[in-house]
Specification:
The complex is a heterodimer of chains A (240) and B (242). By secondary structure, chain A is α/β, with parallel strands linked by helices. Chain A is built from eight helices and nine strands. Classes of the chains: A alpha/beta (240), B mainly alpha (242).
Chain lengths: 240, 242
């Protein structure tokens, strides 16, 4: 049984075809990083899986609860951290988890603060805790570190890594950062082209090396600009 | 500054520079205030005015909540209702006075209606723009967690709209006092506005000044009350207070 199974996904915005027959499987417990140039459709894919966008054709099957963390924390400004995290809880068992997930993300001391009193890193931790409170089988992470400074980014990446180990949840991480992908994922998928297709897929530690991923991404850059470019310079833009 | 003004006023009156038929001295005003309080007329007029404002404001709030929610919640209703309401809003509200007097006479209903008209539009406009301005990203969070439509409204849309609504209500309340003066100046046998007309007809500047001071106090108190309410209810907003 897989955590997510996508078959023949088709999605268009007007005449712009984002996907036309995309297939992707995420095994139970597997962590997949999706990389690609800006605007290639990786966030759209995540939004389709989360049910925020309607696909035009194809099927998306997921098992169990889904948790989502966006680029921005998206906390409710009128609720304190604890109530924000408890927001999705429906049962007493889920409400009882609030304290645990707060401790897990290292925010137990800030439970009573309201969002405007939080730093960017803390707010994103709270968002992560909120996504975990229903004990999701699949965690969708849409550039969750993009709005953070370099130091917070490294901290939060380590925290997410620990949490994924601990919860054993499947995860799909959308990012443009090769380091994020290598640090967190079991498998790396590169999306490229219009409509977007899987240009590369490989296991971290096997075929998904930094060089191979940058190569797959670099090709995208040159194609999309249709001018001869020095691959070294464009490749470098993908290393943070 | 208010103290300096008061001192200047007192000095000018005491030295005879200003005659009492032009402007009563502070002492006369205080005496008039005490007289009115003792005779019970003060409480009658103040009570009548407060009652009109409270009723008119309550009606305006209720109408604005209903119409604002409908218009803010549905593009279709907006297309049907909003142009009409905006058209009505474009009329300087005091221009309705003759029509209201013709329709409703000079009784309480006319005054309360006028107050309600004055208070309605600021609340309505603020509510509609508040609903329209709700952060789509927060609504998405609710959607992801599978909130029903009712739950989404109660747990996301209402709290997100509350800051704007309260600002609108504060402005609406100020408007309510403004329209009360207009209504009571035209036709009233009691109320603070009646004190104004009565003072004018009897050339009693002390009476007029008492009414003006009471209006100032009422306006200031209701404004402060609304600000306090805002601070208590929507202190979480991350913006510079208006």
């Amino acid at each position: 049984m897989s955590a997510a199974r996508i078959r023949g996904l088709r999605k268009a915005y007007g005449t712009h075809l984002v996907f036309d027959g995309l297939d992707l499987d995420v095994a139970r417990g597997e962590r997949v990083a999706i990389l690609g140039a800006s605007g290639c459709g990786k966030s759209t894919l995540l939004r389709c899986i989360a049910g925020l966008e309607r696909s035009d054709a194809g099927t998306i099957a997921t098992t169990g609860e889904i948790g989502v963390v966006f680029q921005e924390p998206r906390l409710f400004p009128w609720l304190d951290v604890e109530r924000n995290v408890a927001f999705p809880a429906r049962t007493d068992a889920e409400r009882a988890r609030v304290g645990n997930v707060l401790a897990l993300v290292g925010l137990a001391h800030a439970a009573k603060r309201i969002p405007k009193e939080l730093s960017g890193g803390m707010a994103q931790r709270a968002a992560l805790a909120r996504a975990l409170v229903r004990d999701p089988a699949l965690l969708l992470l849409d550039e969750p570190f993009a709005a953070l400074d370099a130091l917070r980014r490294i901290e939060l990446r380590a925290a997410v890594r620990e949490i994924l180990e601990f919860t054993r949840a499947s995860a799909i991480l959308v990012t443009h950062d090769v380091d994020d992908a290598l640090a967190l994922a079991d498998r790396v998928v590169v999306l490229a082209g219009t409509p977007a297709e899987i240009a590369f897929t490989g296991q971290v530690g096997e075929t998904a090396t930094r060089g191979a991923i940058l190569d797959a991404l670099g090709v995208v850059e040159i194609r999309s600009r249709s001018v001869p470019a020095r691959s070294g310079r464009h490749g470098a833009s993908y290393t943070s | 500054m208010p103290l300096a003004l008061l001192a200047g006023w007192w000095a000018a009156s005491a030295s005879g520079f200003i005659k009492s038929y032009q402007l009563a001295s502070p002492r006369d005003v205080v005496r008039e205030l005490l007289d009115l309080a003792q005779s019970g007329l003060l409480w009658r007029d103040l009570g009548a005015s407060i009652e009109r404002v409270a009723l008119g404001f309550a009606i305006a709030l209720l109408c604005a909540l209903v119409l604002g929610s409908l218009v803010g919640g549905s593009r279709l209703v907006e297309r049907v209702l909003d142009p009409t309401l905006q058209g009505i809003r474009a009329v300087p509200s005091l221009a309705w006075v003759p029509l209201i007097l013709l329709w409703l006479g000079i009784g309480e209903t006319a005054k309360i209606t006028l107050v309600a008209i004055g208070a309605f539009f600021p609340i309505y406009v603020a509510l509609v723009s508040g609903i329209r301005g709700v952060d789509r990203k927060l609504v998405e969070v609710g959607t992801i967690f599978g909130l029903s439509r009712v739950a989404l409204i109660a747990r996301v849309l209402v709290p997100a709209t509350l800051p704007q609504l309260l600002v609108g209500a504060r402005i609406g309340l100020t408007q309510a006092w403004l329209f009360l003066v207009a209504a009571e100046l035209l036709a009233a046998t009691n109320g603070l506005g009646f004190l104004l007309t009565d003072g004018q007809q009897t050339s009693r500047t002390d009476e007029i000044l008492v009414a003006i001071l009471l209006f100032a106090a009422c306006g200031k108190l209701s404004e402060s009350g609304m600000r306090l309410l805002e601070k208590r209810l929507v202190g979480w907003t991350d913006t510079v207070p208006a």
